[in-house]
Protein backbone atom coordinates (compact mmCIF):
# COMPACT_ATOMS: atom_id res chain seq x y z
CA UNK A 1 0.00 0.00 0.00
CA UNK A 2 1.25 3.49 -0.90
CA UNK A 3 -0.84 5.80 1.34
CA UNK A 4 -1.52 9.49 0.85
CA UNK A 5 1.06 10.14 3.59
CA UNK A 6 3.28 7.64 5.42
CA UNK A 7 4.04 9.58 8.61
CA UNK A 8 2.59 12.39 10.68
CA UNK A 9 5.87 14.34 10.47
CA UNK A 10 9.06 14.49 8.47
CA UNK A 11 11.84 12.83 10.49
CA UNK A 12 9.10 11.39 12.64
CA UNK A 13 11.08 9.62 15.37
CA UNK A 14 13.31 12.64 15.96
CA UNK A 15 10.25 14.90 16.04
CA UNK A 16 8.36 12.66 18.48
CA UNK A 17 11.33 12.47 20.85
CA UNK A 18 11.73 16.23 20.80
CA UNK A 19 7.98 16.70 21.34
CA UNK A 20 7.99 14.27 24.28
CA UNK A 21 10.81 16.16 25.95
CA UNK A 22 9.07 19.46 25.32
CA UNK A 23 5.82 18.28 26.91
CA UNK A 24 7.61 16.81 29.94
CA UNK A 25 9.62 19.96 30.56
CA UNK A 26 7.05 22.60 29.62
CA UNK A 27 5.29 24.60 32.31
CA UNK A 28 2.60 25.77 29.85
CA UNK A 29 0.81 23.96 27.02
CA UNK A 30 -1.84 26.60 26.25
CA UNK A 31 -0.93 29.22 23.65
CA UNK A 32 2.30 30.95 24.56
CA UNK A 33 5.89 31.62 23.55
CA UNK A 34 6.28 28.69 21.12
CA UNK A 35 3.22 29.85 19.18
CA UNK A 36 4.44 33.43 19.06
CA UNK A 37 7.92 32.30 17.97
CA UNK A 38 6.41 30.18 15.17
CA UNK A 39 4.31 33.11 13.95
CA UNK A 40 7.42 35.25 13.53
CA UNK A 41 9.59 32.47 12.06
CA UNK A 42 7.01 31.28 9.56
CA UNK A 43 6.09 34.81 8.42
CA UNK A 44 9.79 35.57 7.95
CA UNK A 45 10.26 32.36 5.95
CA UNK A 46 7.27 33.25 3.79
CA UNK A 47 8.53 36.82 3.36
CA UNK A 48 5.56 38.51 5.02
CA UNK A 49 5.43 41.16 7.72
CA UNK A 50 3.65 39.00 10.31
CA UNK A 51 1.54 35.92 10.89
CA UNK A 52 -1.24 34.78 13.20
CA UNK A 53 -1.38 31.11 14.22
CA UNK A 54 -4.71 29.25 14.51
CA UNK A 55 -5.88 25.80 15.51
CA UNK A 56 -6.52 24.85 11.85
CA UNK A 57 -6.37 26.14 8.31
CA UNK A 58 -10.17 26.11 8.18
CA UNK A 59 -10.32 28.31 11.29
CA UNK A 60 -7.79 30.63 9.67
CA UNK A 61 -10.05 31.08 6.64
CA UNK A 62 -13.09 31.82 8.80
CA UNK A 63 -11.13 34.22 11.01
CA UNK A 64 -9.80 36.05 7.96
CA UNK A 65 -13.24 36.79 6.56
CA UNK A 66 -14.57 37.64 10.04
CA UNK A 67 -11.71 40.10 10.48
CA UNK A 68 -12.45 41.79 7.17
CA UNK A 69 -16.10 42.06 8.20
CA UNK A 70 -15.25 43.44 11.65
CA UNK A 71 -13.04 46.07 10.00
CA UNK A 72 -15.84 47.07 7.60
CA UNK A 73 -13.75 46.08 4.57
CA UNK A 74 -16.38 43.51 3.60
CA UNK A 75 -20.05 43.98 4.47
CA UNK A 76 -22.97 41.56 4.57
CA UNK A 77 -24.04 40.75 1.03
CA UNK A 78 -20.58 41.39 -0.46
CA UNK A 79 -19.98 39.32 -3.58
CA UNK A 80 -16.93 37.14 -3.08
CA UNK A 81 -15.49 35.20 -5.99
CA UNK A 82 -13.75 31.92 -5.25
CA UNK A 83 -12.02 29.13 -7.16
CA UNK A 84 -14.71 26.60 -8.05
CA UNK A 85 -12.17 23.77 -7.75
CA UNK A 86 -11.49 24.07 -4.04
CA UNK A 87 -11.86 22.73 -0.51
CA UNK A 88 -15.00 23.17 1.55
CA UNK A 89 -13.52 25.47 4.21
CA UNK A 90 -12.59 27.97 1.51
CA UNK A 91 -16.30 28.46 0.80
CA UNK A 92 -18.00 27.84 4.15
CA UNK A 93 -17.00 31.24 5.64
CA UNK A 94 -18.40 33.09 2.64
CA UNK A 95 -21.80 31.53 3.34
CA UNK A 96 -21.57 31.55 7.14
CA UNK A 97 -20.79 35.27 7.32
CA UNK A 98 -23.59 36.37 5.00
CA UNK A 99 -21.58 37.07 1.87
CA UNK A 100 -22.60 36.05 -1.65
CA UNK A 101 -20.42 33.28 -3.13
CA UNK A 102 -19.56 33.59 -6.82
CA UNK A 103 -17.87 30.56 -8.40
CA UNK A 104 -15.00 31.32 -10.80
CA UNK A 105 -14.07 28.65 -13.32
CA UNK A 106 -10.66 26.93 -13.32
CA UNK A 107 -8.47 26.15 -16.31
CA UNK A 108 -8.00 22.41 -16.96
CA UNK A 109 -4.34 22.93 -17.92
CA UNK A 110 -3.35 24.74 -14.69
CA UNK A 111 -6.05 23.48 -12.23
CA UNK A 112 -6.46 27.09 -11.13
CA UNK A 113 -8.38 30.26 -11.84
CA UNK A 114 -6.51 32.18 -14.53
CA UNK A 115 -6.91 35.88 -15.22
CA UNK A 116 -9.06 35.10 -18.26
CA UNK A 117 -11.45 33.10 -16.04
CA UNK A 118 -11.73 35.98 -13.60
CA UNK A 119 -12.30 38.50 -16.39
CA UNK A 120 -15.00 36.30 -17.91
CA UNK A 121 -16.89 36.29 -14.61
CA UNK A 122 -16.45 40.05 -14.21
CA UNK A 123 -18.30 40.47 -17.50
CA UNK A 124 -21.33 39.04 -15.67
CA UNK A 125 -21.05 40.41 -12.15
CA UNK A 126 -19.12 42.97 -10.08
CA UNK A 127 -17.06 41.37 -7.31
CA UNK A 128 -16.06 42.88 -3.99
CA UNK A 129 -13.39 40.26 -3.28
CA UNK A 130 -11.69 37.24 -4.79
CA UNK A 131 -10.56 34.33 -2.59
CA UNK A 132 -8.19 32.26 -4.75
CA UNK A 133 -7.30 28.66 -3.94
CA UNK A 134 -3.81 27.72 -5.09
CA UNK A 135 -4.55 24.12 -6.04
CA UNK A 136 -2.23 21.21 -5.12
CA UNK A 137 0.95 23.30 -5.46
CA UNK A 138 -0.03 24.93 -8.76
CA UNK A 139 -1.18 28.52 -9.21
CA UNK A 140 -2.85 30.76 -11.74
CA UNK A 141 -1.12 33.69 -13.46
CA UNK A 142 -0.97 35.56 -10.19
CA UNK A 143 0.51 38.87 -11.32
CA UNK A 144 -2.22 39.22 -13.95
CA UNK A 145 -4.90 38.24 -11.43
CA UNK A 146 -3.54 40.77 -8.94
CA UNK A 147 -3.55 43.51 -11.59
CA UNK A 148 -7.11 42.62 -12.58
CA UNK A 149 -8.23 42.88 -8.96
CA UNK A 150 -6.48 46.22 -8.49
CA UNK A 151 -8.03 47.63 -11.67
CA UNK A 152 -11.51 46.56 -10.56
CA UNK A 153 -11.18 47.53 -6.87
CA UNK A 154 -11.44 43.87 -5.77
CA UNK A 155 -9.95 42.72 -2.47
CA UNK A 156 -7.65 39.79 -3.29
CA UNK A 157 -6.56 37.09 -0.83
CA UNK A 158 -5.31 33.50 -1.16
CA UNK A 159 -5.91 30.08 0.32
CA UNK A 160 -2.37 28.73 0.07
CA UNK A 161 -2.93 25.65 2.22
CA UNK A 162 -1.89 23.32 -0.62
CA UNK A 163 0.92 25.34 -2.19
CA UNK A 164 3.42 26.19 0.54
CA UNK A 165 6.83 26.67 -1.09
CA UNK A 166 5.62 27.20 -4.65
CA UNK A 167 7.08 30.26 -6.36
CA UNK A 168 5.05 31.77 -9.18
CA UNK A 169 5.47 34.85 -11.34
CA UNK A 170 8.54 35.92 -9.39
CA UNK A 171 7.05 35.65 -5.90
CA UNK A 172 6.03 33.02 -3.39
CA UNK A 173 2.51 31.66 -3.65
CA UNK A 174 0.58 33.26 -0.83
CA UNK A 175 2.28 36.65 -1.25
CA UNK A 176 0.18 38.11 -4.05
CA UNK A 177 -2.99 38.96 -2.15
CA UNK A 178 -3.62 41.17 0.87
CA UNK A 179 -3.41 38.03 3.03
CA UNK A 180 -3.10 34.27 2.70
CA UNK A 181 -3.95 31.18 4.72
CA UNK A 182 -1.82 28.08 5.33
CA UNK A 183 -2.55 24.67 6.83
CA UNK A 184 -0.32 22.45 8.97
CA UNK A 185 -2.68 19.49 9.07
CA UNK A 186 -1.12 16.04 8.79
CA UNK A 187 -0.18 15.30 5.14
CA UNK A 188 0.37 18.95 4.27
CA UNK A 189 3.82 20.33 3.47
CA UNK A 190 4.39 20.91 7.18
CA UNK A 191 2.56 19.06 9.94
CA UNK A 192 1.79 20.28 13.44
CA UNK A 193 -1.02 17.65 13.61
CA UNK A 194 -3.58 20.46 13.37
CA UNK A 195 -2.87 24.13 12.81
CA UNK A 196 -3.16 27.03 10.40
CA UNK A 197 -1.73 30.48 9.79
CA UNK A 198 -2.66 33.79 8.21
CA UNK A 199 0.24 35.81 6.80
CA UNK A 200 -0.04 39.42 5.67
CA UNK A 201 1.74 42.77 5.51
CA UNK A 202 -1.47 44.48 6.68
CA UNK A 203 -0.77 45.40 10.32
CA UNK A 204 -4.36 46.52 10.98
CA UNK A 205 -5.56 43.12 9.77
CA UNK A 206 -3.06 41.32 12.04
CA UNK A 207 -4.42 43.24 15.01
CA UNK A 208 -8.01 42.31 14.21
CA UNK A 209 -7.09 38.66 13.57
CA UNK A 210 -5.64 38.44 17.07
CA UNK A 211 -8.89 39.85 18.45
CA UNK A 212 -10.97 37.42 16.36
CA UNK A 213 -8.81 34.43 17.34
CA UNK A 214 -9.33 34.89 21.08
CA UNK A 215 -13.00 35.58 21.81
CA UNK A 216 -12.90 39.22 20.72
CA UNK A 217 -10.65 40.43 23.54
CA UNK A 218 -7.27 42.20 23.51
CA UNK A 219 -5.02 39.89 25.52
CA UNK A 220 -2.66 39.07 22.65
CA UNK A 221 -2.26 42.64 21.43
CA UNK A 222 0.75 44.82 22.19
CA UNK A 223 0.51 47.26 25.09
CA UNK A 224 0.19 50.12 22.61
CA UNK A 225 -2.65 48.38 20.79
CA UNK A 226 -4.41 47.54 24.05
CA UNK A 227 -4.21 51.17 25.13
CA UNK A 228 -5.79 52.25 21.84
CA UNK A 229 -8.72 49.83 22.13
CA UNK A 230 -9.32 50.53 25.82
CA UNK A 231 -9.26 54.28 25.32
CA UNK A 232 -11.64 54.01 22.36
CA UNK A 233 -14.16 52.06 24.44
CA UNK A 234 -13.57 53.83 27.78
CA UNK A 235 -12.16 50.78 29.55
CA UNK A 236 -10.61 52.32 32.64
CA UNK A 237 -8.86 49.42 34.39
CA UNK A 238 -6.89 46.25 33.74
CA UNK A 239 -9.47 44.40 35.82
CA UNK A 240 -12.32 45.51 33.52
CA UNK A 241 -10.24 44.78 30.42
CA UNK A 242 -9.84 41.11 31.36
CA UNK A 243 -13.37 40.34 30.18
CA UNK A 244 -14.01 43.09 27.65
CA UNK A 245 -14.95 41.88 24.17
CA UNK A 246 -14.43 44.42 21.39
CA UNK A 247 -15.75 42.66 18.32
CA UNK A 248 -17.01 39.31 17.03
CA UNK A 249 -14.60 36.45 17.52
CA UNK A 250 -14.09 32.76 18.25
CA UNK A 251 -11.84 30.53 20.29
CA UNK A 252 -9.43 29.50 17.54
CA UNK A 253 -6.31 29.50 19.71
CA UNK A 254 -3.64 26.86 19.04
CA UNK A 255 -1.68 25.08 21.75
CA UNK A 256 2.02 25.21 22.53
CA UNK A 257 2.24 21.75 20.98
CA UNK A 258 1.18 23.30 17.66
CA UNK A 259 3.77 26.04 18.03
CA UNK A 260 6.58 23.67 19.04
CA UNK A 261 5.90 21.30 16.15
CA UNK A 262 5.73 24.18 13.70
CA UNK A 263 9.09 25.50 14.87
CA UNK A 264 10.65 22.04 14.75
CA UNK A 265 9.29 21.09 11.34
CA UNK A 266 10.19 24.42 9.75
CA UNK A 267 13.83 23.28 9.53
CA UNK A 268 12.81 20.57 7.05
CA UNK A 269 10.65 22.70 4.78
CA UNK A 270 13.19 23.45 2.05
CA UNK A 271 14.10 19.77 1.68
CA UNK A 272 10.41 18.87 1.67
CA UNK A 273 9.63 21.33 -1.13
CA UNK A 274 12.59 20.26 -3.30
CA UNK A 275 11.78 16.58 -2.91
CA UNK A 276 8.12 17.10 -3.81
CA UNK A 277 9.14 18.99 -6.95
CA UNK A 278 11.60 16.26 -7.97
CA UNK A 279 9.03 13.52 -7.31
CA UNK A 280 6.41 15.26 -9.42
CA UNK A 281 8.74 15.87 -12.36
CA UNK A 282 9.84 12.24 -12.19
CA UNK A 283 6.22 11.10 -12.50
CA UNK A 284 5.40 13.80 -15.06
CA UNK A 285 7.99 12.39 -17.48
CA UNK A 286 5.90 9.24 -17.76
CA UNK A 287 2.57 11.07 -18.02
CA UNK A 288 3.93 13.26 -20.81
CA UNK A 289 4.42 10.17 -23.01
CA UNK A 290 0.77 9.12 -22.62
CA UNK A 291 -1.85 10.96 -24.67
CA UNK A 292 -4.63 9.72 -22.36
CA UNK A 293 -3.73 12.60 -20.03
CA UNK A 294 -4.13 16.37 -20.18
CA UNK A 295 -0.68 17.91 -19.83
CA UNK A 296 -0.50 20.43 -16.98
CA UNK A 297 1.02 23.80 -17.81
CA UNK A 298 3.21 25.54 -15.23
CA UNK A 299 5.71 27.58 -17.22
CA UNK A 300 4.77 30.59 -15.06
CA UNK A 301 5.87 28.68 -11.93
CA UNK A 302 9.51 28.95 -10.84
CA UNK A 303 9.38 26.35 -8.06
CA UNK A 304 6.66 23.69 -7.97
CA UNK A 305 5.86 22.48 -4.46
CA UNK A 306 3.15 19.96 -5.23
CA UNK A 307 0.83 18.85 -2.46
CA UNK A 308 0.00 15.68 -4.41
CA UNK A 309 0.30 14.03 -7.84
CA UNK A 310 -2.69 15.21 -9.92
CA UNK A 311 -3.79 13.05 -12.83
CA UNK A 312 -6.12 14.64 -15.39
CA UNK A 313 -7.59 12.18 -17.89
CA UNK A 314 -9.16 13.20 -21.18
CA UNK A 315 -12.53 11.58 -20.41
CA UNK A 316 -14.37 9.78 -17.64
CA UNK A 317 -13.85 6.31 -19.17
CA UNK A 318 -10.09 6.82 -19.04
CA UNK A 319 -10.35 8.03 -15.47
CA UNK A 320 -12.15 4.84 -14.50
CA UNK A 321 -9.43 2.80 -16.18
CA UNK A 322 -6.62 4.59 -14.33
CA UNK A 323 -8.49 4.59 -11.03
CA UNK A 324 -8.57 0.81 -11.35
CA UNK A 325 -4.87 0.79 -12.21
CA UNK A 326 -3.95 2.74 -9.09
CA UNK A 327 -6.32 0.85 -6.80
CA UNK A 328 -5.09 -2.47 -8.12
CA UNK A 329 -1.48 -1.48 -7.42
CA UNK A 330 -2.31 -0.48 -3.85
CA UNK A 331 -1.88 3.28 -4.39
CA UNK A 332 -4.28 5.35 -2.29
CA UNK A 333 -6.15 7.93 -4.38
CA UNK A 334 -8.58 10.80 -3.89
CA UNK A 335 -10.81 13.07 -6.01
CA UNK A 336 -9.20 16.34 -7.08
CA UNK A 337 -9.86 17.99 -3.70
CA UNK A 338 -13.62 18.69 -3.51
CA UNK A 339 -14.06 18.79 -7.27
CA UNK A 340 -16.41 21.50 -8.49
CA UNK A 341 -17.70 22.76 -5.15
CA UNK A 342 -21.00 23.80 -6.74
CA UNK A 343 -21.84 20.09 -7.00
CA UNK A 344 -21.47 19.51 -3.25
CA UNK A 345 -24.66 18.94 -1.19
CA UNK A 346 -24.06 21.86 1.18
CA UNK A 347 -23.60 24.28 -1.71
CA UNK A 348 -26.89 23.35 -3.34
CA UNK A 349 -28.63 23.73 0.04
CA UNK A 350 -27.41 27.24 0.85
CA UNK A 351 -26.62 28.90 -2.50
CA UNK A 352 -29.28 29.71 -5.06
CA UNK A 353 -27.12 31.08 -7.86
CA UNK A 354 -24.94 28.61 -9.77
CA UNK A 355 -22.45 29.70 -12.41
CA UNK A 356 -21.16 28.05 -15.56
CA UNK A 357 -17.84 26.37 -14.78
CA UNK A 358 -17.01 24.06 -17.70
CA UNK A 359 -13.35 23.69 -16.75
CA UNK A 360 -14.09 22.70 -13.15
CA UNK A 361 -16.84 20.36 -14.37
CA UNK A 362 -14.26 18.64 -16.56
CA UNK A 363 -11.77 18.33 -13.70
CA UNK A 364 -14.54 17.10 -11.38
CA UNK A 365 -15.34 14.20 -13.72
CA UNK A 366 -11.95 13.31 -15.13
CA UNK A 367 -9.31 13.79 -12.44
CA UNK A 368 -7.86 12.32 -9.26
CA UNK A 369 -4.62 12.42 -7.27
CA UNK A 370 -2.26 10.27 -5.24
CA UNK A 371 0.14 11.33 -2.52
CA UNK A 372 3.47 13.11 -2.94
CA UNK A 373 5.92 13.41 -0.03
CA UNK A 374 9.62 12.98 0.72
CA UNK A 375 9.22 9.46 2.16
CA UNK A 376 8.23 8.02 -1.23
CA UNK A 377 10.92 5.50 -2.17
CA UNK A 378 12.24 4.74 -5.64
CA UNK A 379 10.10 1.60 -5.52
CA UNK A 380 7.02 3.66 -4.62
CA UNK A 381 7.66 6.05 -7.50
CA UNK A 382 8.18 3.08 -9.80
CA UNK A 383 4.80 1.65 -8.76
CA UNK A 384 3.06 4.96 -9.42
CA UNK A 385 4.74 5.26 -12.82
CA UNK A 386 3.69 1.73 -13.72
CA UNK A 387 0.05 2.81 -13.29
CA UNK A 388 0.49 5.63 -15.82
CA UNK A 389 1.95 3.83 -18.82
CA UNK A 390 -0.27 3.31 -21.83
CA UNK A 391 -0.43 -0.40 -22.57
In brief, what are we looking at here?
The chain has 391 residues and is an alpha/beta fold. The protein is built from 15 helices and 13 strands.
Protein traits:
single chain, 391 residues, alpha/beta, Aspartate Aminotransferase, domain 2, Aspartate Aminotransferase, domain 1, 2 domains, seven-stranded mixed sheet, three-stranded antiparallel sheet, globular
Report on this structure.
- The protein has 391 residues and is of the alpha/beta class.
- The protein has two domains: 12-267, Type I PLP-dependent aspartate aminotransferase-like (Major domain) (Aspartate Aminotransferase, domain 2, 3-Layer(aba) Sandwich); 269-386, Aspartate Aminotransferase, domain 1 (Alpha-Beta Complex).
- The chain contains 15 helices and 13 strands.
- The strands form three sheets. It has a seven-stranded mixed β-sheet, sandwiched between helices. The chain has a three-stranded antiparallel β-sheet with strand order 7-6-10, with no helix packed on it.
- Helix 3 packs across helix 7 (203-213).
- The longest helix has 19 residues, at 269-287.
- It is globular.
- The mean pLDDT is 97.
| Spans where pLDDT lies below 50 across 5 or more residues | none
**Named CATH architecture of the largest domain:** 3-Layer(aba) Sandwich
Largest sheet: 7 strands, mixed
Strand proportion, as a percent range, falls in 5-15%
Amino acid sequence: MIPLMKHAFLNEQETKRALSEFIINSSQLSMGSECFKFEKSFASKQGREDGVLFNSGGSANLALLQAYKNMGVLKSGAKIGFSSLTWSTNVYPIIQLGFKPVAIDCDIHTLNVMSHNLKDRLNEIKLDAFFATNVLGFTGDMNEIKSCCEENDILFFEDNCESLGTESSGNKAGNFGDASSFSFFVAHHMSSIEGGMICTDNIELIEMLRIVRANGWDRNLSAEQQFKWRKRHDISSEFQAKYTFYDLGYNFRPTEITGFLGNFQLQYLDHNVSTRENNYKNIERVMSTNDDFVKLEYSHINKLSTFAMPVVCKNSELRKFYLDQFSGAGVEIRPLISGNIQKQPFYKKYVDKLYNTDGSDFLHSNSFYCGNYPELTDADLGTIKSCLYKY
